[in-house]
Design goal:
- The protein has 9 helices and 19 strands.
- By secondary structure, the chain is an alpha+beta fold.
- It is globular, with a radius of gyration of 24 Å.
- Pfam families: PmbA_TldD_1st, PmbA_TldD_2nd, PmbA_TldD_3rd.
- It comes from Sphingomonas hankyongi.
- This is TldD/PmbA family protein.
C-alpha cells in the first residue's frame, strides 16, 4: 500500500499518460489496502488472515465515448499497456451524451477537510486473537447460551487517491477496527442463534469485546421459544438493528440513476412532503471518524453535510455527474466508485435524526405491537414501494417487550410507511447508515 503522496503521484501520472495518448479527458483512481483478521471458536484459534493489495483504474474519454480499465500491476510496462488498451476501448465505445468529468467549479481545490479517518495503530495477530476470545467468553457466560458459532476481530486500512485532467489530485487514508461474536442458545429443535458486532475508525473508539459478546449472548437467549402473533394489522417498531434498512430503501429511491430511469417510487416527490413534519434525514460525509466519511467524492467533487429530508420534505436527489446531467442538475458530491468501473451515486454517513419521544415512550404508546429485530429476504419493489419481508422480533404488550415471535411477514408500502413513521430519540452512530428505533403505526402481519 502506497503512502497518500505516492498514490497521488501514481494517479496523476496515469492521467497525464492518458491525455498524451490522445484522450480528451481522463481520471484515475488508486486504491491500496491491507487487512488482518482472526477467528476463534470455543476458545480455539480457527483462522488467521492477512491480505494486502493495490489497484489502479483509468477512465479515458474520447469526446462522448469512454472506457475504464483497471490493473493490479503498477509496473511502468503494465501501466503503458493499460493506457493503450483503455484508449482503444474508448474509441470503440458508443457515444453517451451524458458522459464526462465533473464540472471544474465543483472540484475540491482547497486543502481537504480533516475527517479523522485514519488510525495508525495496527494490532498484531495476538491482540486480535485476545479480543476475539474475550468476546466469545463473555457470550458463552450468558445463562442459556449452549454453543458458539465463533468470534472474530479485524483491522484494516486503505489509501485512496484520485486525479483528473481537470486539475484535481488528492489522496487520503482510512482505517477500520472490528469485533464480532455469534452464539447459539437452547438445545435441539428449539435452538436460536444471534450475534453482535461493532466497527470503528479508531481502535480506542471500539466497544469493549466483553460488551459485544455479552450482547450477542443475551440476544440469542431472548429469542428462545418464539411464537406467532395472530394475523392482522399492528403497529410495528423497527429496532435500530434493522431500522437503518428503511434508510437504505430511501437512498436507493433518491439516487439519480433510478430517478432518471423512472424506476423510483419517489421519482415525482422532489420538493414534496414525504415524511412527517418532524422527520429529518441527513447525509454528512465530513463527520469526524465517521465510518463513511471522506474529504471528496469519487469524481473529486467537494462534499458537505446535506439535509435530504427537511421537516419531512424531500429536498434533493443524490447524483454523480452522468445522472446529474440526465436530470438537469449539478452533481451532489455523492459519486462512489471502485477502480474498475464508472462512478455511481451513493450516500455517505446517512442518518435519520432522533425524534422527540424516547423508545420507552413509543413502546408505551402501543398496547399491542410488534418489535422487529431481524429482517429476512428482499421483498421490496423499488418502482412501486411495495414492501413485504420476513421478520423476527417480539410482541409488545401494554408497553413492555413480551414473548419472541418468528416466521412472520410484515407488509405495507414504503410511501405510506414514510409518511406516518415516527423516530425515537435513541439514535447512535454505530454504522455508515444509522437510524433510531422507528414506529410505523400500522402494517400487516402474517405468517411467513
Amino acid at each position: 500500500m502506497q503512502s497518500p503522496e505516492q498514490a497521488q503521484r501514481i494517479a496523476k501520472s496515469l492521467v497525464e499518460r492518458g491525455i498524451a495518448a490522445g484522450a480528451t479527458a481522463a481520471d484515475a483512481l488508486y486504491v491500496g489496502d491491507r487487512s488482518s483478521s482472526v477467528q476463534v471458536r470455543l476458545g480455539e484459534l480457527e483462522g488467521v488472515g492477512r491480505s494486502e493489495g493495490e489497484e489502479v483504474g483509468l477512465r479515458l474519454f474520447v469526446g462522448q465515448r469512454s472506457a475504464t480499465v483497471a490493473s493490479s500491476d503498477l509496473s511502468d510496462e503494465a501501466l503503458s499497456a493499460l493506457v493503450e488498451r483503455c484508449r482503444a476501448m474508448a474509441a470503440e465505445a458508443p457515444e453517451d451524451p451524458f458522459a464526462g468529468l465533473a464540472p471544474d467549479h465543483l472540484l475540491l481545490r482547497e486543502d481537504p477537510p480533516a475527517i479523522e479517518s485514519f488510525d495508525p495503530v495496527e494490532p498484531d495477530p495476538s491482540e486480535l486473537r485476545n479480543r476475539a476470545l474475550e468476546a466469545e467468553r463473555a457470550a458463552l457466560a450468558v445463562a442459556g447460551v449452549t454453543n458458539s458459532s465463533g468470534a472474530g476481530a479485524s483491522a484494516s486500512a486503505s489509501t485512496i487517491a484520485l486525479a483528473t485532467s481537470g486539475g484535481f489530485a488528492c489522496a487520503y487514508r482510512s482505517s477500520s477496527h472490528g469485533c464480532s461474536a455469534a452464539v447459539v442458545a437452547g438445545e435441539g429443535a428449539t435452538m436460536q442463534r444471534d450475534h453482535a458486532w461493532r466497527s470503528s475508525r479508531f481502535l480506542c473508539d471500539l466497544e469493549a469485546p466483553a460488551e459485544i459478546g455479552r450482547r450477542a449472548g443475551e440476544r440469542a437467549v431472548s429469542r428462545l421459544n418464539p411464537g406467532r402473533p395472530k394475523p392482522g394489522r399492528y403497529p410495528v417498531l423497527f429496532d435500530p438493528r434493522v431500522s437503518s434498512s428503511l434508510l437504505g430503501h430511501f437512498a436507493g429511491a433518491i439516487t439519480g440513476s433510478s430517478v432518471a430511469r423512472k424506476t423510483s417510487f419517489l421519482r415525482d416527490k422532489l420538493g414534496e412532503r414525504v415524511f412527517a413534519d418532524g422527520v429529518s434525514i441527513v447525509d454528512d460525509p465530513l463527520r469526524p471518524r465517521g465510518l463513511r466519511s471522506r474529504p471528496f467524492d469519487g469524481e473529486g467533487v467537494r462534499v458537505g453535510r446535506r439535509e435530504l429530508i427537511d421537516a419531512g420534505v424531500l429536498t434533493s436527489w443524490i447524483a454523480e455527474s452522468a445522472s446529474a446531467r440526465q436530470l438537469g442538475i449539478q452533481p451532489t458530491g455523492h459519486a462512489a466508485r471502485g477502480a474498475g468501473g464508472a462512478p455511481s451515486a451513493s450516500p455517505t454517513n446517512l442518518y435519520m435524526a432522533a425524534g422527540r419521544r424516547s423508545r420507552e415512550e413509543l413502546l408505551a404508546a402501543c398496547p399491542e405491537a410488534v418489535l422487529i429485530i431481524e429482517l429476512i429476504g428482499q421483498g421490496v419493489n423499488g418502482v412501486t414501494g411495495d414492501y413485504s419481508r420476513g421478520a423476527v422480533g417480539f410482541m409488545i404488550r401494554d408497553g413492555e417487550i413480551a414473548e419472541p415471535v418468528a416466521e412472520i411477514t410484515i407488509a405495507s408500502n414504503l410511501i405510506d410507511m414514510f409518511a406516518t413513521l415516527e423516530p425515537a430519540s435513541d439514535l447512535e452512530f454505530t454504522r455508515g447508515i444509522d437510524a433510531p428505533t422507528i414506529l410505523v403505526p400500522e402494517m400487516t402481519i402474517g405468517a411467513a
